[in-house]
Every structure is written in C-alpha cells, then in structure tokens.
C-alpha cells in the first residue's frame, strides 16, 4: 500500500511540476503518468475521468489527482495524489515568489515562455487526438461536437451550461437507449 501511495505522490508531483500553462497543459502529463507509466487506467477510463473532472468546478489537476488516487488506493490515495499535485508548487511559489515577481517581465523569461507554448499546444492536441478516438464512436457524437463548437463560438454560451446540457442529453438519449435494448 505504501508503494502505491508513493507512486501516486511521485507521479502527480512529476505531472504537476513539469506542466507549464495551467490545467490544460497538465492533462497530457497526467495521462503519461496514469495511463502510460503506471497503468492505473486505460485511455477510455482516462477520457471518462477527464470528462467527469471537466463537469465539476475547480482546477482539473487536483480533480484528476483525487479521482486517480481514490481509484488506485482509496481516500489515502486521493490525498497522496492531491498533495503531490499541490504541495511542490505551493512550496516553490512561497520560496521563490519574490524572484518570480521580480523577473516576470524579463525578456529572458518571456522568451522561454514563448518557446514552451507551442510544445504545450502539441501535447494537449496529442492528448485530445487519443481521447477523440474513443469519444466519437457514432455520427451523433460528431453532431454533439459540432453543436458544441457552434454554441461556444457563435452563440457564446458558457461551457458549464454546455457540459450540463450534454450530460442531460446523454442520459436521455444514450441512457434510455441502453434500457430498451
């Protein structure tokens, strides 16, 4: 059990501290740990966990950590993974906060960030591609994607409303279809 807790802590420490750009940039790193390295879940389970995490309020990294940790080792696992996600960053920010503030506008730091942004986009796109292979099994799921894009970019509806509506749609359409089969 201690080995599982340690692996959860280390895996989520590694994922959260190598990600630049906030929550979405951590998703491929969490996937690399949870799916590829430790095999705590497969791609489909990861996509489901990510969907659940995105449907709930709060930062995605802590929700993914808690979900994965709980799946692997119960409440202690959720705690170990969440601490691994949050504690190192908090310590770095507290210890280096004045340096971060002092150099936040430096040309050198801005240059480094400019170079890392495309890498983050590619990593997120690669994760989206992997998840997309399972997320679009039928023409109706493609229809949901098209409607989502239209609602986001043409009507400007908040993503939370779209997530709730899609969950209700899934429950009504797909959930009832399984009951009748």
From TrEMBL:
The principal location of this protein is membrane
- Subcellular compartments: Cell membrane
Task: Write down the Pfam families for this protein, in alphabetical order.
Answer: Chromate_transp
Any single GO molecular-function term of the entry would be: chromate transmembrane transporter activity
Query: How does it sit in the bilayer?
Result: Multi-pass membrane protein
GO CC annotation: plasma membrane
Membrane-crossing ranges are: 72-99, 141-174
Which key words are in the record? Cell membrane, Membrane, Transmembrane, Transmembrane helix
Task: Say yes or no: keyword Membrane present.
Answer: yes
The record's comment on protein family reads: Belongs to the chromate ion transporter (CHR) (TC 2.A.51) family.
Q: List, alphabetically, the PANTHER family matched.
A: CHROMATE TRANSPORT PROTEIN-RELATED (PTHR43663), CHROMATE TRANSPORTER (PTHR43663:SF1)
The protein, known as: Chromate transporter
Q: Which organism is it from?
A: Desulfosporosinus hippei DSM 8344
